[in-house]
Amino acid sequence: MNFYIKYNILVCLIFLTEPVHHVTGQLWSYPNRSEFQQLEKDIEKAQSDIVDLEAKGIERHQNVQNDIRILQLRLDAVSSIGGSSSVPCGLIGLAIKDGAHYLLQKRVNGAGWGSRQNAEAVMALRLADPRRFSVGKSLINYDYIQGVNDMFIELISELNRPDFENDTLWAHGKLAQYMVGLTSACKDTQSFYGFDVASIVRRQFNTFKSFFKSQKFALSWVVLALCNANLTEETTAMDILSANPGFYTFGIDEASMIVMALSCVDNSSYSTAQRVAEDSILNGSKPDGSFGNEYTTGLAIQALTRYSGSRHDVYGIIQKAQDWLARNVIGKFANVAMANQVLPALARRSYVDIKDLKCHKKPNTAPTLSASGQCIHVKITAKDNMINKTPFERSWVANGNKGDSMFVVMQKLEQQEPSFNFTSITFSSGEFIRSIVGIATDSGLRQYWQFLRYPDTVMPTGVSNTYPNNMDHYVFKVTTW
């Protein structure tokens, strides 16, 4: 059986060790003892196989359908949720873990999830598990934090283009979506490395208003972007979004986005339009519990978590849809967009919940303008293939001022970003880097942090005597002399 699924069967045992549990308003029944003991043996065997499976390089989705069939048979036999939409113990949890694993494995160092896809991945991971990212706390979940940095790097690079604001690839709702991603990563969208992203989104809406009038799916992202950032909504955008209720160019997908956008603003003037859209979604529910494909079902579930009407069967509809969705996505996550629409739904959250995610605020460390008045953004990458047991590579973006030395830029990054820290030794020639993120070199082993201009040009000067330009990229790499 697939290693990833075997490992996660353990999740179920947590629930099965108590006589009765309340889970989302339902009761978990106590399993037959002999079946429980057999399942325990299966778990022990699965655990003993993990190392062997990894060593053999077995793909995570190899024979996945057979894995799921066996998993469902075993778990259906020992526990169930009452009603026709029974979900095997932990299956939704497994689907969430599989989707998150898919995203983290798909990320490429330095590029994230690809052009204009990073925000979708970041918000999907954060909504799937809000504990994943805590600003100002210990260094946790490096893969996710690295993905956040990739998003920052991509967006800063794009924002620096002179033609960016009118680029339709960004102006037709994509920047608004990235604004939601920034909010999910606890970034101030009005002060993002010297850019007021919120103001740019507003200007794009006004410039391309005719487009947004016919594309309410995209317009919903504009409203969600401003609402999640706790900014005043565009009244004109809300009027367009709520016009002609019941007519949706893109069907349930569009109706779902409209529901989320309107519920986020929570203005009684638009309650009728919201309820008409909710009814349109509910009318699209199919006998198997789905709303069509996985993408549409994910958006529909998200929207129905915001339900404002009076029907009493909505909870059951959501539960049945989650059941269908979980059974149909494990092992089949195909792209970032799918994960973005499905993972929040499986976690019974929506894009609206981003505004309520907890962020541990940091002091304002925005750089003071230098005499030139020019802010710069510098990418810093640290690599180690010698000290750690597994290869290490992380990147960050530091904001500083024109004329700052690389050492000063690193000091500012340490203040700005909890996941970055370093130590140095002072010599007459300047600062010598001793450790980065706790990885310390050993002079006895002739190790040191080599300072390079990306990708592999050795710098003729050290960090104290190197003065970066905007969007320069430097690499620190553990090596030996």
Automatic annotation (TrEMBL):
Disulfide bonds join C227-C264. The keyword Ribosomal protein does not apply. Residues 1-25 form the signal peptide. One of its GO terms (biological process) is cobalamin transport. It is found in: Secreted. GO terms for molecular function: cobalamin binding. This is Uncharacterized protein. It comes from Pinctada imbricata (Atlantic pearl-oyster).
